Protein: FAD-dependent monooxygenase
Organism: Streptomyces cylindrosporus
Amino acid sequence: MTAAIALAGCGHTVDVVERNRDWSVTGWGLSLTGPSLRALQRLGLADACIDGGFGLTQISNCDSAGRTRNVIDLPLLLGPDMPALAGLSRGVLHEVLRDAALARGAVLHTGMSVAALEQAADGVTARLTDGSARHVDLVVGADGIRSTVRDMLGMPAEPAYTGQMVWRAIVPRPGWATTLHTFAGPVHNAGLIPISQDQAYAFVTENHADSGVLPQEELAERMRDLLNVFSGRVAEVAATIKDPELVVRRPVHAGVVDGPWHRGRTVLIGDAAHAPSPQMVSGAALAIEDSLVLAEELGLHDDVETALEAFGRRRLERCRLVVETSVKVGELEREGRHAEAHKLQDRCHQVMAQPI
Ligand SMILES: Cc1cc2nc3c(=O)[nH]c(=O)nc-3n(C[C@H](O)[C@H](O)[C@H](O)COP(=O)(O)OP(=O)(O)OC[C@H]3O[C@@H](n4cnc5c(N)ncnc54)[C@H](O)[C@@H]3O)c2cc1C
C-alpha cells in the first residue's frame, strides 16, 4: 500500500490487487522504528500512525526478573520533539494506509491475484484470477514472504525457518510500560510494547520450536506456560494473557533474494525480496523505504529498466544487512548471548538511521 501511495502521489495510475477478499487484519501489534516513521513522514502519514498508537523513545533491556540491565536511547529521526518509535495495532496501520491509498486515487481490487505475467518491450500484461487482463508499464510484486510474483519470475529463495516461533498477545498496558521492554529469559526472550494508552502487546520468542500449528483455544495457556520461568513484571503481564483469540503464534522465516529484484517490467519489493526476522523490528521499514526509492527512481529515469536497476543498487546492501543481522541476532539469542545480540542490533540500527 505504501508503494501505491508513493506511486499515485507521483502521478502514476495505480491498481492494487489483493488476494484477501475482506482484507482482514489480525489483532497483533507492530513496532514502527525510526526509519519506518521517517519514511511514513515523507508520505505524510507518520503523525496518523503515532496518534493512532503509542510513541516511545527508549528500549529497556531487562533480566528475567524484570530488573533493568541497560537502557538504549533511540535516535530521534523525526526531530527532538517527536517519538523515536511507535507501537500500534496492525489494524490501525492498515486503516491509515488504505485510506491514504484511496485518497490518492489508487484503485483497490480485493479477492483476486495475478494468474500470469507476459512481458513485452513496452510493458507487461498481467492476467488476473477474475479473468481480466491489464497491460501496464510496471508490476510491483509486494505480495509478501511467500510471493507468487517471485515464483512467476523464477527467482529462488523460499525464506528459511530460523527454528524460532514468535508468540504475541494483546494485553492491557501496565502503567510502567512507557518504553519498549525486552526480558532476557534463561531459554526464551520476552518483551512488551505499548500500542495505545490502554493496550500493549507481549511477545515471547520460543527457541528450538516445532513449527506445527497448535489449537487456537490452547494458545493463551501455552503462552503463559512459556512465560512461567520469568518473574516480576513478566509474571504480572503473563497473568493478563487470558483470551486465546488475542494470541498469535507464527514461525520466523528470513531470507533475501540475490539481486537483481526485477525481470523485465516486474519488480519485487518488501518481504517478497527481503524478509528479516522480527529481531530487527525492521521489515516494515524496509518495505516502506522500498516504496519511496522505487517511486523516486522511476521519476528520475525515462527508461523503466534503468530505474529498476538504480532501485536495486540503492536497496540491496541495506536490506541484506538487516536480514543477515536479524538472523545472527536470533542465533545469539538462542545461545543466551544477549549482550552480543544487543550490540549487533544497535550497530544495525545505526546503519538504518542513515538517510536512504
Ligand atoms: C511475528 C512477526 C512480527 C513482526 N513484527 C514486526 C514489527 O514489529 N515491525 C516491523 O517493522 N516488522 C515486523 N515484522 C515484519 C513485517 O510484518 C513485514 O516485514 C512487512 O509486513 C512486510 O510488508 P509487505 O508489504 O512486503 O508484505 P505483507 O505485509 O506480507 O503484505 C503482503 C500482502 O500481499 C497479499 N498477497 C499475498 N500473496 C498475494 C497474491 N498472490 N496475490 C495478491 N495478493 C497477495 C497479502 O494478503 C498481503 O496483504 C514482523 C513479522 C512477523 C512474522
Remarks:
- The mean pLDDT is 94.
